[in-house]
Design a protein that fits this description.
The protein has 1 helix and 23 strands. The protein has 308 residues and is mainly beta. The strands form 6 sheets. A 4-stranded antiparallel β-sheet has the order 1-2-3-4, with no helix packed on it.
């Protein structure tokens, strides 16, 4: 779900049956103001993420705030609310065929047959530098860089995850850096120009359901896996989180976000509850925090190049 920035009373929701619905939270009615339930363009599979995006390119209807959704039907779709509830596909995600492996005798082995040609989309995030560029995370573990101007091909594909990618988020401080998390138990930090991860974080043997950058510190991010809430500070430690909080037995954590105006995080779980946690004893934010993270990334990339 996501609130509109231009019209804060509008709340967009993606549903498991593929419907996209917009509610007016000022209204006392229970039904949505708009929905795609009877639309021919409705997603045919669950909508896993949707966001209001401010588009600064194009003209007329192509500019302004747009609602974007991604689904396991392989479509990244753009919805316009000015004229009813029209939809256009930004991308139909396709599976990338891996090269066939060679046998011991040097002959080409059989390549894996594709049951479906489309890739199931799970998450996306638009570049803070260019509202025409976005990243899409898929069920097969790949992250694709896409452009709103090209709906037939990817600009690049990032390889690293070995399980479904559950969340992608660009850094609010370094516009070429982003985080991703996956069912492969990992969080990975990427630099836009490098198709392999810069840093990999493994702290448990549980699927990582969500990851989120701190809005106040360039080196801090939080994540939830099925067994714990974790707060990481890369300025302090790149191997282990600085805070770990374990929920009540049987509760699986599903999502996390930082509060914008306080030292708190909000965490959702499988019981349908949202819990608020206050972050205490956090390291003070250094003035050169952004430069420190940038240096860490540069040094890591340099050491990776020296190994090759």
């Amino acid at each position: 779900m996501d609130f509109s920035a231009n019209n804060p009373n509008l709340l967009a929701i993606g549903l498991y049956d593929g419907t996209v619905a917009i509610y007016n939270v000022r209204s006392t009615k229970d039904e949505p103001a708009l929905d795609s339930y009877e639309s021919k363009a409705k997603h045919s599979s669950p909508v896993w993420e949707l966001k209001w995006i401010e588009k600064d390119r194009g003209s007329g209807d192509e500019k302004g705030e747009m609602l974007i959704s991604i689904s396991t039907d392989g479509r990244v779709s753009q919805w316009q609310i000015r004229k009813g509830f029209e939809c256009a596909d930004l991308m139909k995600l396709k599976r990338v065929v891996t090269k066939s492996r060679k046998n011991k005798d040097g002959r080409e082995g059989k390549s894996e047959a594709l049951i479906s040609r489309h890739a199931s989309g799970l998450c996306f995030d638009f570049s803070p530098k260019d509202s025409n560029i976005y990243l899409a995370g898929t069920e097969d573990g790949l992250i694709h860089k896409c452009s709103c101007s090209y709906n037939e091909q990817y600009l690049d594909s990032y390889h690293g995850h070995t399980g479904p990618v559950n969340r992608i988020e660009w850094s609010p401080f370094l516009p070429d850096v982003f985080l991703s998390c996956s069912n492969d138990w990992s969080i990975r930090l990427w630099q836009n120009d490098h198709l392999q991860p810069v840093l990999n974080f493994f702290s448990s043997t549980k699927s990582v359901m969500d990851v989120c950058w701190s809005p106040t510190s360039a080196s801090v991010f939080g994540c939830v896996n099925e067994g714990a809430i974790e707060i990481w500070d890369l300025d302090q430690n790149t191997l282990d989180p600085i805070i770990v909080s374990v929920p009540a037995p049987g509760v699986k954590l599903s999502c996390l976000t930082f509060a914008i105006n306080s030292d708190c995080i909000l965490v959702g779980d499988s019981e349908g509850q949202v819990s608020v946690f206050q972050l205490r004893c956090m390291p003070s934010v250094a003035k050169d925090q952004t430069e420190k993270l940038s240096r860490l990334i540069e040094q890591t990339l340099a050491s990776q190049l020296s190994k090759h």
